[in-house]
Design brief:
- The chain is mainly α.
- It is built from 2 helices and no strands.
- The longest helix is centred in the middle third of the chain and has 95 residues.
- The radius of gyration is 48 Å and the shape is rod-shaped.
- It starts with a helix and ends with a helix.
């Protein structure tokens, strides 16, 4: 009978060991699957980061270009305002000057006919 108990005990230990090994194998497989999923997500995140970085670079270049264009437009506008001011002064001087007598005489002769 002791032999039977020994054989049953060994069999029971083997079953427990097999169950434990089977459980560990399943956990290992689950962990490996999770690692594969995490690698996939990590790769997707890396690609997203690359796209976002590129978009930020394009955005920075666009902002720089717009700032340069705005600066040029502001400079041109300032020059135009300055030219308008100098033309106004020149125009005022011309208007304030008296017309020559011969021009006045010519204008008077055309109006009296």
């Amino acid at each position: 009978m002791a032999m039977k108990q020994l054989i049953l005990s060994i069999g029971l230990l083997l079953l427990i060991g097999f169950g434990y090994t089977y459980n560990l194998a399943n956990k290992l497989k689950e962990s490996q699957n999770e690692i594969v999923q995490l690698k996939t997500v990590s790769q997707q995140n890396a690609e997203s980061i690359k796209r976002i970085t590129r978009a930020k670079e394009v955005e920075a270049q666009t902002i720089q270009h717009l700032q340069e264009q705005q600066s040029k437009a502001s400079s041109e506008f300032a020059r135009a305002i300055k030219r308008m001011g100098s033309l106004s002064i020149e125009s005022k001087k011309f208007i304030d000057e008296r017309l020559p007598d011969d021009v006045i005489g010519m204008l008077n002769s055309t109006t009296s006919d």
